[in-house]
């Protein structure tokens, strides 16, 4: 019968193997997708252009409310290696965070400037819909 120490070492080894497999598979996730369709900055730039050229259409489409759901899989892919309980990159330093923050703070043309611009809430909504569930899941497992 194996000792607890041997069992723990086996479990750690198996966990590390599984983790390495997940990381390897995550690198392949978007390899068959056009670069401009999986780069958050490029995606947000297209929405910014739409907003600047056609502010009424952009506003009528409620894009600020749709973006967190659209960006969710792309953000989650960047978070595969991230763990708030380990020494990880600070969220504010991650490419997705900087891109969404820049988009949320982008200067709006005067004709589309609104007091209740939903784009200002994109970053908090992405955090609410993507980051908080990940943190909650990690805390439940620990």
UniProtKB/TrEMBL annotation:
Coiled coil: none annotated. Signal peptide: none annotated. Residues 41-135 form the GCF C-terminal domain. GO terms for molecular function: DNA binding. It is found in: Nucleus. GO terms for cellular component: nucleus. Keywords: Nucleus. It comes from the Eukaryota. InterPro entries: GCFC2-like (IPR012890), GCFC_dom (IPR022783). Pfam families: GCFC (PF07842). GO terms for biological process: mRNA splicing, via spliceosome. PANTHER family: GC-RICH SEQUENCE DNA-BINDING FACTOR, INTRON LARGE COMPLEX COMPONENT GCFC2. Belongs to the GCF family. This is GCF C-terminal domain-containing protein. It comes from Gallus gallus (Chicken).
